[in-house]
Structures are given as structure tokens and as C-alpha cells.
Specification:
The protein is mainly α. It has one domain (about 50-200). Helix content is about 75%, strand content about 0%. It has helices spanning about 1-70, 75, 85-105, 110-125, 135-155, 185-200. Helix 3 packs antiparallel against helix 4 and helix 4 runs parallel beside helix 6. It is elongated and about 90 Å long.
Length: about 200
């Protein structure tokens, strides 16, 4: 009887130890999962903010190149354009296209609207596009439209500065929870303007 009592006491002690250890193991696993999930969230957030900073830079480059395109566009209005200005214009259109494609790579969610702007740039680059038939008012409107498209795209991605400070490399502060780029309304205005330009120059 005494031996059986000792066995029961030993068995009860082992069960209690096993239960305590199991509870501790579950708590430890939960803590590890929380830590891993937190680290993963932090890394994703830092990467997202850096991607936003890259979007800002590319949208600014696009704006700068389209400004140059607007400045050089009169070279395409002439029947016999100046070779130097024509080549410079084509180079700036190429750079604008590269910046836009880079922006599309960074912002895949807005690939469709951005590709509509790219269609306009491709049409302008096309040697078959003849702008010499535009009258003075149409030429001025086209120059203004191209400049506005670049500024609207840049402003759409720079909308962050309306809500927080933005580092050019790391983007907004880590704890920023405001709206993300781009400003949908501004981007849509740029897209609609680009579609109008494409329609206008395609009909020439």
C-alpha cells in the first residue's frame, strides 16, 4: 500500500510538471510568434516608406523631363525641324518614358492609369506623329498640357508633404499613418489630360 501511494505521488508530480512545462511552452511560442510578426511588420513598413520616397523622386524626374519636352516641342512643329533640338527632344521623351516606367514598377497598383500617360509619350516619340499642322493656339495648348501632366503627376505623389515631413531616402517618419501616395484625384486629372493630348496628336 505504501509503495502504491509513493507511485501515485510521483505520477501526480510528473503530470503537474508536464502541465506547467506545456503551458510555459505555449506562452513561449506565442511570444516568439508576436515578436516575429512585429519584426516582419516593421520591415514591411520601412520598405513601404522607402518605396514611397522612390516614387517621389521618379515623379519629380518625370516632371523635369516633361518640362524639357514642353520647352523643346516647337522643334516638332516645324516642317523641317532643327536636327539638334529634334534629337534633344527625342532624348528627353526617352528619359521621361524611363522615369514613368520606373514609377510604374514602384507603384504597380496604379499601373493602368500610368500606362495611359506612357501611351501619350510613345505617341509623341513616334516619327509618324506630325505636329506641323497644329495652329499657334493648338501648339501653345499642347505645350501647356504636357507641362501640366508632369506637374500633376509629381504633385500627386508629393501629396505626403501636406501631412508630414518626408525624407528623400526613407520617406515619411516610421509612425506616419496618413494617406499614401498618390493623390488619386490629381493622378486622374493627369491621365485625362494625357488621353486628350494623345487623341489630339493622333488625329494629325
Amino acid at each position: 500500500m505504501e509503495g502504491k501511494g509513493k507511485e501515485r505521488a510521483r505520477s501526480s508530480g510528473l503530470n503537474r510538471t508536464f502541465c506547467i512545462n506545456l503551458k510555459q511552452l505555449i506562452v513561449l511560442l506565442l511570444l516568439v510568434m508576436v515578436v516575429v510578426a512585429t519584426v516582419f511588420w516593421v520591415v514591411l513598413r520601412i520598405d513601404m516608406h522607402k518605396r514611397w520616397a522612390s516614387m517621389l523622386r521618379e515623379s519629380q524626374r518625370l516632371r523635369d523631363h516633361l518640362d524639357e519636352v514642353a520647352y523643346l516641342l516647337p522643334a516638332k512643329f516645324q516642317m523641317n525641324p532643327d536636327g539638334i533640338n529634334q534629337n534633344w527632344l527625342l532624348a528627353e521623351l526617352h528619359y521621361a518614358d524611363n522615369s514613368l516606367l520606373e514609377l510604374i514598377e514602384l507603384d504597380k497598383e496604379h499601373q493602368v492609369p500610368l500606362l495611359k500617360i506612357d501611351d501619350m509619350i510613345i505617341t509623341l516619340r513616334d516619327p509618324e506623329t506630325n505636329l506641323s499642322r497644329l495652329n499657334n493656339i493648338e501648339q501653345r495648348d499642347l505645350i501647356e498640357a504636357i507641362r501640366n501632366i508632369g506637374w500633376k503627376v509629381a504633385n500627386a505623389y508629393w501629396n505626403l508633404i501636406n501631412y508630414t515631413s518626408v525624407d528623400s531616402v526613407n520617406g515619411p517618419p516610421f509612425w506616419y499613418f496618413g494617406p499614401s501616395p498618390p493623390d488619386e484625384a490629381l493622378l486622374q486629372e493627369a491621365v485625362e489630360l494625357a488621353a486628350e493630348v494623345k487623341t489630339k496628336i493622333s488625329s494629325q
